[in-house]
Amino acid sequence: MARIAGVNIPTNKRVEIALTYIHGIGRTSAKEITAKLGFPPERRVQDLTDAEVLAIRETIDRDYTVEGDLRRDNAMAIKRLMDLACYRGLRHRKGLPVRGQRTHTNARTRKGKAKPIAGKKK
């Protein structure tokens, strides 16, 4: 099992697909990496040599923000909005949808399980 950016990527999948298991690398980035290193699209992770795995690891470290660093950057961006007390920051702080969605109905992902209100019949 190859370990890249602190993630064990599956060995029986194509390299292009296996790289998407790393947080911060999607299909497009994975295709760019494999094209840059010259791997054919049907190449499997189990067929890679140690040198090729090292080349992938170095390319990702050099050109992409992934895993812990990316999560930290996202958390810091949200924290900055909350500290500014701008509208988006207040929505994050209250746990409500940030991007203008309706909240009268729906929005259960952000608001959590519905809480019953006492005495609200009819």
Q: Can you tell me about this structure?
A:
By secondary structure, the protein is mainly alpha-helical. The chain folds into 2 domains: 2-67, Helicase, Ruva Protein, domain 3, CATH 1.10.8.50; 85-122, Irregular (30s ribosomal protein s13, domain 2), CATH 4.10.910.10. The chain contains 6 helices and 2 strands; from the N terminus they run ββαααααα. Strands 1-2 form a two-stranded antiparallel ribbon. Strand 1 (2-4) and strand 2 (7-9) form a beta hairpin. The radius of gyration is 21 Å and the shape is elongated. GO terms for molecular function: rRNA binding; structural constituent of ribosome; tRNA binding.
Considering the chains and any ligands shown, give keywords for the structure.
single chain; 122 residues; mainly alpha; Helicase, Ruva Protein, domain 3; 30s ribosomal protein s13, domain 2; 2 domains; two-stranded antiparallel ribbon; 6 helices; 48% helix
CATH-derived architecture of the largest domain: Orthogonal Bundle
SS field, number of helical segments: 6
Poorly predicted runs are none
The radius of gyration is 21 Å
Across the major sheet, the strand order is 1-2
What's the helix-strand series? EEHHHHHH
Strand content: under 5%
Q: How many individual domains?
A: 2
What's the CATH class of the largest domain, please? Mainly Alpha
* First-last Cα distance: 59 Å
Query: What is the tally of beta strands?
Result: 2
User: What is the arithmetic mean of pLDDT?
Assistant: 92
Specify the structural class.
mainly alpha
Q: Helix content range of the residues, please?
A: 40-55%
Question: What fold name goes in the CATH topology slot of the largest domain?
Answer: Helicase, Ruva Protein, domain 3
The largest pleated sheet is described as: 2 strands, antiparallel
User: What is the approximate shape?
Assistant: elongated
Protein name: Small ribosomal subunit protein uS13
Keywords: Ribonucleoprotein, Ribosomal protein, RNA-binding, rRNA-binding, tRNA-binding
GO molecular function, one term: tRNA binding
Family: Belongs to the universal ribosomal protein uS13 family.
